[in-house]
Amino acid sequence: MQGKFTPKRDYYAGGLMLLLGVGAAVTGSGYKFGSLARMGPGFMPVVLGVVLAFLGLLIAGTALTSTEPDDKKFLPDHPQWFGWLCILGGPVLFIILGQYAGMIPAVFACVFVCALGDKTGTYKSSAILAAGVTVFGVLLFHYLLSIPFPLLRGVNL
Amino acid sequence: MISTAITDLWYGFGVALEPHNLMYCFLGVLVGNLVGVLPGMGPVATISILLPLTFGMPPVPAILMLSGVYYGAQYGGAICSILLNLPCHPPHAVTCLDGFPLTKQGKGGTALGITIIAAFIGASFGITEMIFLAPFLVKMALEFGPAEVCSLMLVGLLAGSTLAKGSPLKGIAMTVLGLLVGIVGSDIETGQPRFTFGITELFDGVEIIALALGMFGIAEFMNSINNTETVDMRYAKVGISDMFPSKADLKLAFWPMIRGTLLGSLCALIPGTGPTIASFVSYATEKKISKTPERFGHGAIEGVACPEASTHSSVQGDFIPTMSLGIPGDTVMALLLGALIIHGIVPGPQLISQHADIFWGLIASFWIGNILLVILNVPMIGVWVKLLSIPYRYLYPSAMFFVCIGVYAANNDMFQVGETLFIGVVGYILLRLDFHPAPILLGFVLGPRFEENFRRSLLISRGDLMTFIDRPISAFFLLICVVLIAAQVLVWLRKPKIIAEEQALEAAVPATSYSEVAE
């Protein structure tokens, strides 16, 4: 500790656990706690929450006393905002289109958007991949495994 | 004892050889081998995707198939390590050290051949161990009351979180987080909804598939996107004829295989030490007792044979505590336990007697599956090598599709897809903060049973916590817990030589951008 306070990742890690633990304990205290002999539904949540909060303090505390440098940042060296957006956007589209349009558009959109996230992915290559996966997916899940998921909502295929 | 074991095993073969079961066993090992070869796909994600598809099946073929994925993936994972120097499957990371130099010398085929022999020997021993040890453990465990079960679970949870990779403190924190996630939903006894925040879909609790696919699927893909090296296929040319090792190589590899097998089966018995630790320990041991340690790292065949045998024997041995005690040792086993529960089978010591078809069928299917894998890997090696060259940019979007539809198919509910997405984002944040997600799944699966037994034992003792210490078996388990914690504190205070050596070994393994998560 040379005077200067440098943020370490473990402070965030400990802080997050502390937050989650306190949150769980506070929420859990809303349920009946009961006694040791007759535990209510609130017993475990509160106890585990307190334990987690304590572990959070320990994690942050050991980081404070350790002299080992922690040079890794929270964000990776090359943050992939676009890639992450695509990976998360795929399932979001899958949910929306699956709910209102059916399996074919949902699968195509999901794979297409996810594939765009790769830096070498082009519209064309992503579309080809998406089309291929859609055909395979429909054959496997609709015809072979027959999961209840209409191919196109509103159209009787 | 041996005669009953043989009768039971005979019965098991009858179950496993039923055409239906045999087909699913084959499907399992085939898919496992496939995802083992493909960099960036792990058995955890694959089993989670396949799990909803087994809902319509009887439990026996379902469990046979899902287990097949796990040990099948071990055969595939070695190919990836040896030919491409990509340690995409943690248990095979250490195989890169000598496997890839061998490949560069043009002896990749020999290394693969030795690997398959080592795998088969290791697996066979692991299965034999299970045949004799599991019924013995069950006999002991049938005496357990809720207090003993509770303490035993505590050992499992603590071992799973402290012996795994990374900081033990963070591991324990993840276990507790997993236990908390397991609480979500209606309380078993009173029906009081807990941590549901008014969302009706959460009343049944968090879906295990959503948790596994969020943590090991989406979080993983976010970690590896645009972060993967181009695969170097220069040396990956292997034909069948290269795969038969010479007599000299076999002689060199024989004892290391046996030693690896024994070490692996030992590691399987200690809860929390899965195949990954087994392979590292056995490599280090083999190097230490070798007369020519300087050959290690430059293509010593022993450095391939020993860890591979150890991995496979540990993988099969992993099933012992899961199937006989209902205490999973690692993530895959936690998932399989979840699968058993979904199929309406209560895990625990009564499993062998109540569901003999599953237990003995599973053991018999291990033999069959391993033979199938040897057959699959020798003549078809060319196909697997071809698969290695599939680029990641095609893999992860396809995998995302399987994630989405797998989670949807579990309940035919889009809410679960959103749940998976949310867990994925949280999982990625945890990953960036150096938390390993494996203990979460362990805590999640054991959580509800832990709470139930904890409540019950205190109800019996009328709220006296001493019940856990008064009962000798329970006290023994608690003592193990204390030893585990004390050992960690000691390690933290002064780093012993063994740890330093293992860390040096880990540092020697080529850095990988795929799959940093220990499985």
Question: How would you describe this protein?
Answer:
The complex is a heterodimer of chains A (157) and B (519). With 157 residues, chain A is mostly helical. Chain A has five helices and no strands. Chain A has helices at 9-28, 43-65, 81-100, 103-116, 123-144. The longest helix of chain A has 23 residues, at 43-65. The radius of gyration of chain A is 24 Å and the shape is flat. The mean pLDDT of chain A is 83. Chain B has 519 residues and is mostly helical. In chain B, 71% of the residues lie in helices and 1% in strands. Chain B is built from 23 helices and two strands. Chain B has helices spanning 2-16, 19-37, 43-50, 59-84, 95-104, 108-141, 146-162, 168-183, 208-224, 247-269, 275-289, 302-317, 319-325, 331-342, 351-354, 356-377, 381-387, 392-411, 414-432, 438-460, 467-470, 472-493, 497-508; strands at residues 185-186, 193-194. Chain B has a two-stranded antiparallel sheet with strand order 1-2. In chain B, a hairpin with a 6-residue loop joins β1 (185-186) and β2. The longest helix of chain B has 34 residues, at 108-141. Chain B is globular, with a radius of gyration of 22 Å. The relative contact order of chain B is 0.19. Residues 512-519 of chain B have low confidence and may be disordered.
Q: What's a concise summary of this model?
A:
The complex is a heterodimer of chains A (157) and B (519). Chain A has 157 residues and is mainly α. Helices cover 63% and strands 0% of the residues of chain A.
